[in-house]
Known about the structure:
The chain has a domain at 26-140: Up-down Bundle (de novo design (two linked rop proteins)). The protein is built from four helices and no strands. The chain has helices spanning 27-51, 57-82, 87-113, 119-141.
Amino acid sequence: MSNDNLGNFFNADDFDSDDENAENWKPIKVNGNALFKKAIEILNLTESLCDVLPDDDHAAVTKRLMLENAMLVPSKIKGAMGVDEVYSLVMESAVIIKVNIMELKAQLWACSALHGIEEKYVDVLRNEIEAFKKIFIQWVTSFDKENDLPDEWYLFNDPSSFPDE
């Protein structure tokens, strides 16, 4: 184990894109990168909080759910940043990200109410989720609604713009 990373935490810089042609100046990229870094911080905090959960079957379920939610968020952000020019695809990822963050936030209740984790430790992650939410809102408002492909499920774009079937 390296002395540089005693907790074996994830580092957002390890996931930087090597694409030199990327348009990193675009608001969707700037906000997406900030959101990704915050998601990695949340993942690391979630792992730390899960490490202090009791070692029983009920806490194991809470731990699994929390880690699943926290781990999915960074990958969905990176995936959305890869298709940032297609509104319906980015919105689909944004919805999944929001659902997972909200589920993680709800599971914080179990940490304190069911598993006896002190509220001050739960509040650290809750505060980071609130900071994530602010960056998330900036990211979503930078999406280009005009640049889209028809969504055959009719979720995120105007069905009147679809070709006749």
